Amino acid sequence: MKNIPENIIMRAKCIKLVIFDVDGVLSDGKLYYSDNDVECKAFHVHDGAGIVALLQMGIEVAIITKRTSPLLTKRMQHLGVKHVYQGQEDKRIAYADLLKILNLTHDEVAYMGDDIVDLPVLRQVGLSITVANAVPYIAEYTHWQTTLPGGEGAAREACDLILSAQGLLPVLLKQYLT
User: Fold this and answer.
1) In contact, 173 and 68? CB cutoff 8 Å
2) Ranges of each domain in the chain
3) Chain segment 84-117, per-residue pLDDT in tens
């Protein structure tokens, strides 16, 4: 893992759950509406593959988002993500629920967000991550910032960091190389 500080690697080694925000993290943050109010949004295939890789390697994945979207429900079902919290005005409530359900401590959780609504959870978790194009001051409150923007592979970058830190990336690669 090039240029990743040792303290970030140590934090990533403990992660058992990765929580993602959606708009600005798993999508580019743009909201597209058709003339008849149909919402469209794009998800990067690399981010989806990273999420699937986490799940394959036994790391739980969850979504906590302020908005509600049938598109998100469909995408997360396709990826196999079971813990999806939509319409969360206060993301701390869903976060506390996940800790209880999965019997985890703060140090075992990573959260990836990009804006002010994510700060309450970003400040509690063991590994807080933001995207390259996050609201500028958000990076001050996170442990690590990706080099890629939200919706363009940033989530995959975070997934690969965690898998690498835990020695799971070579195990995953081996499945595709043999």
Assistant:
1) no
2) 6-177
3) 999 999 999 999 999 999 999 999 999 999 999 9
Model pTM? 0.95
* Beta-strand pair 32-33/39-40: antiparallel
Could you tell me how many residues make up the chain? 178
Residues in contact with 175: Cβ distance below 8 Å, sequence separation at least 6, in sequence order: none
Question: CB–CB of 61/54 below 8 Å?
Answer: yes
CA distance linking residue 105 with residue 91, whole number of Å: 17
pLDDT at 2: 73
Instruction: For residue 139, give the DSSP letter.
Output: G
Tokens coding 176? 């595709």
CATH classification code of 6-177: 3.40.50.1000
CA–CA dist 49, 47 (Å, integer): 5
And the tokens for 5?
């500080």
Residues 6+ positions from 173 with CB-CB distance below 8 Å: none
Report the C-alpha gap between 86 and 20 in whole angstroms.
12
The answer to whether residue 169 scores a pLDDT higher than 80 is yes
Q: Are 156 and 164 in contact (CB under 8 A)?
A: no
